[in-house]
Amino acid sequence: MSHAQSDADRIESRAHLLPEEAAAGSDDPQAQAEAILAESDIREDGRPAAPDTVLEQRTSDETATNVEPTD
Question: The pTM is what?
Fold first, then answer.
């Protein structure tokens, strides 16, 4: 599957309005989906981060330590 086809699939999937979106209405669900996914991609890439910021991609399992209670 090409990258463009992958994007088309993502847009088509996201163009199905959520219940809240359907209640509010949408003139163009396809354009709305494209805008939402484009913003999501930008956030995921971490572009708005400050230049000296170090972004780490870790799960909570990798960051949390289990502390056993003392008796």
Answer: 0.52
pLDDT recorded at residue 18 = 83
Report how far residue 42's alpha carbon sits from residue 35's, in angstroms, rounded to the nearest whole number.
Answer: 11
What 3-state DSSP class applies to 31?
Answer: helix
The 10s digit of each residue's pLDDT in 43-53 is: 777 655 666 77
What is the spatial distance between Cα 33 and Cα 14, in angstroms, rounded to a whole number? 5
CA triple 64-50-11, angle to 5 deg = 80
Helix, strand, coil percentages, rounded to 5, for the chain: 55, 0, 45
